Amino acid sequence: MRVMANVAMVMNLDKCIGCHTCSVTCKQVWTNRPGTEYVYFNNVETKPGIGYPKRYEDQQQWNGGWALDRKGRLQLKAGGRVRKLLSIFYNPDLPTIDDYGDPWTYDYQAVTDAPLGTRNPTAHSISALTGRDMGVRWGSNFDDDLAGAPEHAVDDPNLAGLEDRVRMEFEQVFMFYLPRICEHCLNPSCVASCPSGAMYKREEDGIVLVDQDRCRGWRMCVSGCPYKKVYFNHRTGKAEKCTFCFPRIEAGQPTICSETCVGRLRYLGLFLYDADKVLDAAATPDEQDLYEAQLSVFLDPHDPAVQADAAAAGIPHDWIAAAQRSPVYELAVRHRVALPLHPEYRTLPMVWYIPPLSPVADIVHAQGYDPGDPDRVFATIDSLRIPVEYLANLFTAGDTETVRTVLRKLAAIRAYMRAAQLGLDLDEDLPASVGASAEDIDDLYRLLAIAKYDERYVIPPAHAEEAGRLMGQHEQLFCSLDTEGGPGMGGGGPGPHGIQSYRPDGVPEEDRTFRAEDGRTHFNLLGWNGEGSAPNLFPERGAP
């Protein structure tokens, strides 16, 4: 057994309201530099929908992730070294800018500088990549809130096999939000796809990063990632991706998307796992068994034998203690209400989701809940607007029974706690009917409904004293924050994004503006409190 630690996230989809605050704050911190106009390390998609980029989940088209060969061995779905060599100058599995949507801005100066008397001056759209006039046809959230659903949502790959059941009609429509970041997988196909070895997974916490010095811009990592969460910076010629806000994580702080989440739906913590079991789990023959296979990789941090092996492997004591208090372990392993996104990609993702239950309480009440018949609560599971089969295509490779079990447990929590808080007769057999105890129900209610800040985010700070040991094992110890191209990703980004920028006091007054590589002065929205003027917020007229 080889014990390792991995920082992980769980998102409760019942709480996401689709406000995109996480996307905006992530964009401001990490990708508001030239060359990253179309890049969203964090984005929120409406499901059903085709996602960002278009139909990224269709691996028959994009060939991302892993597959098994005839002998049952793992291989990249896009092919091995020979195929990559043959396609190194032409990659047919690479999304185009049209799949992402050409990013645009508006010619505001045409309005502000319009002569007096000009009738209806307009700020027409211009490409953020080329600066030329353009007609907007597609963007990152064009199907948000089911906008254009009859035309676009029908192409959602997760609707395969449900065409007869799911029709984009008003009286039958359903939707929920799916926030997405890099999965920081245990078996990352992006790392295996990189010809130059620039993609790597940090040993100390499992975060997947890009070594900008090694990256040669082949973009095989983009096509190799089945979640399409690796991007290409056309200014620097380098690959970029979600860094899991590692400067914040190292300081014991949550990611910026978690910190600013309005719905408080994100949980951060540690998994201890057996690294020797990863490849065997990813090579599980039946796709519907991959969920259980990944669960078998995780180790119980309360087990004294695991604690001893973790300490022998060099994992600090406070990290082991943090793993014991980890909310992601509680939700994913102990209570088994969180599920991985598309386990059939065989990357063993480390960002998991609690599936949405929908307003089941109202349905139960309308159908007449009988405390003497606990199955009355669960009779509505298959009557929900969100089909169980659709959720299964997202989270369990089509295994509906696992999803149904999770939804039954979530429904039991609502029914049990509703009865307790309204003074109704408690059904003592209800927890046991979902494989839980009354204490488990109460624990889940605390985590899902009323968890405090330090219960949702259990992140032990990095140990500087470990730097020497790690440097001895790896040439690359860190992903620098001060190289050319952007904060953490190689580039002179929008100004001060040091640790102080992540704290509530914001950015100092003198750092509210910055000069980019194009020579223009910009205004830093990250540190603005909305008061006073915002000079240089819009580009100057005639700027490139």
Describe the structure in your own words.
This protein is an alpha+beta fold. The chain has a domain at 263-456: 2-Layer Sandwich (Alpha-Beta Plaits). Helix content is 29%, strand content 12%. The chain is built from 23 helices and 16 strands. The chain has helices spanning 21-30, 59-62, 81-86, 97-100, 109-112, 149-152, 189-193, 220-224, 246-250, 256-259, 278-282, 290-297, 304-312, 317-324, 327-334, 360-367, 375-378, 388-395, 400-422, 430-433, 438-449, 453-456, 467-473, and strands at residues 3-12, 43-47, 66-68, 74-76, 104-106, 125-127, 176-180, 199-201, 208-210, 230-233, 238-241, 266-274, 339-340, 351-354, 513-515, 521-523. The strands form seven sheets. It has a four-stranded mixed β-sheet with strand order 12-1-14-13. A hairpin with a 4-residue loop joins β10 (230-233) and β11 (238-241). The model is unreliable at 472-482 and 489-507 (pLDDT under 50).
Condensed summary:
By secondary structure, the chain is of the alpha+beta class. It has helices at residues 21-30, 59-62, 81-86, 97-100, 109-112, 149-152, 189-193, 220-224, 246-250, 256-259, 278-282, 290-297, 304-312, 317-324, 327-334, 360-367, 375-378, 388-395, 400-422, 430-433, 438-449, 453-456, 467-473, and strands spanning 3-12, 43-47, 66-68, 74-76, 104-106, 125-127, 176-180, 199-201, 208-210, 230-233, 238-241, 266-274, 339-340, 351-354, 513-515, 521-523.
